[in-house]
């Protein structure tokens, strides 16, 4: 069980290695949404994404407990960078299995942190087979992108800071996060339950990778009927672990099209003058798609990351 104390310990553990990221507001976007939006800017985090939190919390414990002499994972990008960065912090080699279709900017960043990149076909089966081969060859310890309590507890610290900094005097009505494998959403839902139980948590998901909404409804891990989305960080299915937390503590999952994601991404670039990646824009796209559902509410939004390939902008 991931308790409030577990998350507090995770925050204490990773605090020397992370930024307490800014929370920004924007009058124009508030007027467009007819709501008060508070953007937790994890695009300003170390490695450019919230995943640094979970990766650090797991790797720091692997090192402290002497569980192994190397680290491995599979990831399309941001978790790969997080694990590579965390492994460098503790002086351990890292072997990262990445699909060959992952953005080159993310592969380059992983190598820049000193990790070895092993490319594979863009399927979960190929990623998992690649990790098994690494473990057999090196004895590395797997830090799973989301199916790991230590990773989930680390990801929870982003919403923890958001609530502590802007949700104490007048609590949030809602906190929104995107969902892929569900690590961030699980952590966000848990810490919101502990610190602000009256606040609802809603997830945004691309219509082109809509497995979480099916799993949320059926109660078992489902696969998306098709995968075709610009939000490359949200293509992964949930695990039993994350689905259990999400069904207990998340109010709803809403989907948005790629066109809606791109429009929200562009709005943030233009109005807030900050760089975000497509996956990061999904929660705002949800708010803009359902104006009546979110009107006149105080809403926290986790802006998950800014690792976008500038040579392949969708606008």
TrEMBL record:
The answer, when asked if Transferase is one of the entry's keywords, is no
Its keywords, alphabetically, are: Pyridoxal phosphate
Is the keyword Isomerase assigned to this protein? no
What Pfam families does this protein's entry cite? PALP
Cofactor(s) the protein requires to work? pyridoxal 5'-phosphate
Gene3D superfamilies linked to this entry = 3.40.50.1100
- Source organism, top-level taxon: Bacteria
The UniProt record lists the Tryptophan synthase beta chain-like PALP domain at 14-305
Return the protein name: Threonine dehydratase
Q: Which organism is it from?
A: Spirosoma utsteinense
Traced from the root, the source organism's taxonomic lineage reads: Bacteria, Pseudomonadati, Bacteroidota, Cytophagia, Cytophagales
